[in-house]
Write a structure and sequence with these properties.
Blueprint lengths: L1 E9 L2 H30 L7 H11 L13 H22 L19 E5 L6 E2 L4 E4 L3 E6 L10 E6 L5 E8 L12 E6 L3 E5 L4 E3 L3 H4 L1 H12 L6 H35 L2 E5 L3 H4 L5 H7 L1 H15 L2 E5 L25 E3 L6 E3 H12 L10 E3 L22
Length: 400
């Protein structure tokens, strides 16, 4: 399978200028091609093919208005046309029901939070003996190598985020030797807000709530930005502070997702999760907490890591009554409000933790061999002995 490996880049000032020029050229080519297709659609003409767009790009580079397109590598301009084709393909597939609905391609702006260019193998880029990334018409850029690449990469994408940081994303092929040895445990996972993940073995992982913890600093930085006049340099500096604060939150959340997903995949042979309706939950009053948890990103990591390391990943339907069914006797006990965290089964009398019970039911719905013994919180109510009845003893005062 193909994976992406990202590394931080540290270009100098001339290289930053060259990258900004490359970002601008790729953006202009994308917008010109999109405008051609939109004009053809408005005029009722046939859909302009990729070959025709490539011919028009070659012709436009010979005109005085677009002569500066020749200052950058031609590969990134052709890849910009490929990106437009991908955007149209995703849009048409969404209309046909082959994938979730997506909007039509839109024009790019130089003020977008993310700018990127892509170099393929025929662009002539390479990693120098000094461990720098050599890009055509840009130069040798210093790279912070956090780990070695498992194989020779086929493409590299240079990205600039909203915080002004540069990254290199390499596409590599993984080897079959990365498959982990088989293990016995199988686990079901119930995702939540008070606890980020509840495993069917009774383990509860607290929710870090990175955004909630950083709200005070984010609010202060956003207030400072709102006081700056539009167009001044101080406003640009304040905007970078806000972007960097959000980037720290996103990086911390991504690191937490990676560590937890790797641990779960290494310790269990099979993993089952529930297909949550994140878009629907994001429209409720819990929207900020739902986005802060990042369930979709975490489940995506579990899925690709399971495929990479030879584990089994199962996603059950979102309409499975995991919170209403007793995991010990299988009787559906009806819907319960969210404030009910512990409930007693009317059929067998088992006292169940709502989250652990749901995690066990997720594993059972996926066909995993999971025991329901951990779903019990405590045994059923037992009548008090005669000597234990009566009023409570007086409480002794405590010093605060």
């Amino acid at each position: 399978m193909q994976l992406r490996y990202g590394f931080r880049l540290y270009p100098n000032n001339p290289q930053r200028s060259a990258l900004a020029r490359a970002f601008g050229c790729a953006r202009v080519v994308f917008n010109d091609a999109l405008r051609v297709r939109e004009d053809a659609r408005a005029a009722g003409l046939a859909f302009v093919t990729s070959g025709e767009l490539s011919k028009r790009l070659t012709a436009s580079k010979k005109t005085p208005q677009r002569a500066w397109l020749g200052e950058v590598s031609s590969v990134i301009l052709q890849q910009s046309l490929r990106d437009l084709d991908t955007a149209y393909r995703n849009f048409f597939d969404g209309l046909g029901g082959k994938r979730p609905t997506m909007g039509a391609p839109r024009f790019k702006s130089r003020k977008d939070n993310r700018q990127s260019i892509r170099f393929t193998a025929n662009a002539g880029w390479k990693i120098t003996p000094g461990r720098k990334l050599r890009l055509p018409k840009i130069g040798d850029i210093a790279v912070k190598w956090s780990r070695p690449l498992p194989s020779v990469p086929s493409t590299v994408t240079v990205i600039k985020d909203a915080a002004g940081r540069y990254f290199a994303s390499f596409v590599v092929e993984t080897e079959p030797s990365e498959v982990l040895p088989e293990t016995v445990p199988e686990v079901g996972i119930d995702l939540g807000l008070s606890h980020f993940a509840i495993l069917s073995d009774g383990t509860k992982i607290d929710s870090p709530r990175f955004l909630r913890r950083a709200e005070k600093k984010l609010k202060k930085a956003q207030q400072a930005l709102s006081r700056k006049a539009k167009g001044c340099n101080n406003r640009g500096k304040a905007r970078l502070k806000v972007a960097r604060a959000h980037a720290r939150v996103a990086d911390a959340r991504r690191e937490f997702h990676h560590q937890l997903s790797t641990k779960i995949i290494r310790d269990n042979q099979a993993v089952a999760v529930e297909d949550l309706a994140v878009k629907g939950l994001a429209r409720t009053r819990l929207a900020k907490s739902v986005h802060d948890a990042g369930w979709s990103a975490f489940v995506g990591m579990l899925e690709y890591k399971a495929a990479r390391y030879g584990r089994t990943f199962v996603r059950i339907g979102r309409f499975e009554p995991t919170s209403q069914t007793c995991s010990q006797c299988g009787v559906k006990d009806g819907a319960k409000p969210l404030h009910v965290r512990i409930w007693e089964c009317a059929a067998c009398g088992a006292v169940l933790d709502r989250d652990i019970n749901a995690a066990v039911n997720v594993a059972k719905a996926a066909g995993l061999a999971v025991s329901a013994c951990r779903a019990r919180v405590r045994p059923g109510p037992v009548p008090a002995q005669r000597e234990e009845t009566g009023t409570h003893p007086k409480l002794h005062p405590t010093t605060v």
